[in-house]
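Input chain follows. Return structure tokens only.
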Amino acid sequence: MATISNASRQLTEFIQLQVHEILNQIFFFILMATFDIDQKFLGQFAKNTNNDNPFLSSMLFKVLGLSVLLTKKLGRARKLRRLDTTRDTKSLQLYYHIIWLSREGLVIIEQYILPMVADYVELKVLAYKLRASFYHIFVLYHNQPSINRTAIPGHISSSIPDRNSIRRSPPFDFSTEGRSVPPIPSSLPPGLTPISMPRPAASFLLPAMDFSSTATSCFTMAAALADQLLPGSHPIRLSVKLEYAAFLYDCIHDGETAKVLARQSIRDVYEAPEGMDDDMFDDAAFLVAQLGKQMRRGQSASGTSGSTPRNGSAATPSTPRARSIPYSDNGIPPAVPSPGVQNPI
């Protein structure tokens, strides 16, 4: 029986790892789809603003370079089954590069680009979306507590203890006559020191904290600006909604809200009366296809939709309408400045 139980446990863990790997591949393709669209528009905006605002153009080109490097690093990180950030492994330098590139990109966005995009429309939405994307990477690779530990639950024993087998402990004699009571030690025994949990290795680059609430606020603000300034079929707006839905599913573990958000974004595309050229139509069609994949994530064979509910609570069935949630720039903490690094690139 013990051999069968161990084999069943190993099979369960193997299936969970395979499912997690498939979900990681789906998420990676969705994230890379948004990066491709963002890099395309980012290059166009950097080129178009070269004459009017050379400094803004140079910052946009720097973020574009960081985004291209991040795409390659994230592609390499996807091939790793688990990225251990607490000990010296072969993936440690890759982990450093991802956190450093994301931090420098966030510094450029918050300190140099956001103050100069008030007079632009599409670039303004893209800048706020890029800020949310960098925080998204922090949640994926540098969050404390890690979201990856709750993504795959461990083996849960189905054995129920027999209440009839529980026996009452014998009564304790509190009298101290004729016996010596050993004193309670006030400190740890000699040779033992308090054990502290290991911190992520890149804590010297960025403090390890819970970035999920900040990332949620950034995505909410980017989605509100996209709804207010861009038509429903615009590729930048669809890119915001696609990554927002992926973030809700993979990081917040709210599959139902991500599904409703993806469905509403597709509906907005078909209801948009604005026209578009062939290039924007191809981008919109590609993102709508990715939104459809995001909407079908977690569906079981019986056709019912599964979700990844957040810890301790059930997933809410309604999507947060970003337009009705008032967030401001003052409520979001700025990026951590670069320690000892003057040139972001």
